[in-house]
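User:
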Amino acid sequence: MRSFRFVTADVFTRTALEGNQVAVITDARGLSDAEMQAIARETKFSETTFVIPRDHAIERERGVKVRIFTVEEELPFAGHPTLGTAFVLRGPSNAAEIALDLAVGRIPVAFSQRDGAVFGEMTQRDPEFGQLHDPEEVAHVTGLKTADFDPAFPIETVTTGNAFAIVPLRSLAAIRELSLEWRRAAEYLKNTDAIFFYFVTRDTASAAKLRARMIFYGGEDPATGSAAGPAAAWMVKHGIAKSDEQVMIEQGIEARRPSQIFVRANRTDAGIRDVRVGGYVVQVMTGEISL
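Assistant: Predicted structure:
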């Protein structure tokens, strides 16, 4: 019998049982790839992470090695698992920074005190802007009408590790009523440079700069940090947010797990740089997996 300790956390929230869940296997040495994937299916969270401890000198240089799995596949990068795993690894140490070594490279997460709680902020890879999508084609595969799209801004692929087609909608009503058939959307996406859609609207009825939804093969994601980074770059590029202005993206309302994602990015002569995605984390459960 082998035992593996795990911790679960709710990410992008200050309230337990809200935000997006992640399960962190704190020492995954001895687990095969197949076992990691099976454990991710067992948790049924959007993502489960597996920490692979190494020599401290290597971890100081490269970061702590972490692998990220959805219920279907391993991902090179994901936002809320990065923040949640760094929070768990930090524990009570009061470390100012925890760096993770992910498939996309070294991702640092900085921690600070904000409003009486610990706030974490990751720096993502510099964004790459890709394909501009035809609104009529996107409407056809998403069940939306072309009139639902915000005509002031493009449907554009952006990636900081995972490629998302940012889809701006005109109204809060349009995003609330969104009913996406994933298989149909996936057929379209596989012929593009994006892997998922990220639907956003400036019509938020709150202090948030954007309201967002992300629906994929795992269902509706309550908070998508790997999409929020591209959305931050997209906002700065198109003048929705100012350079280095920290704004909030609200997500997960329709999934009944409200999430608040704080994002910013810089506009430089070389383009959009220094994409940062932050939020709060709440530890919820600890336990052991026995195999």
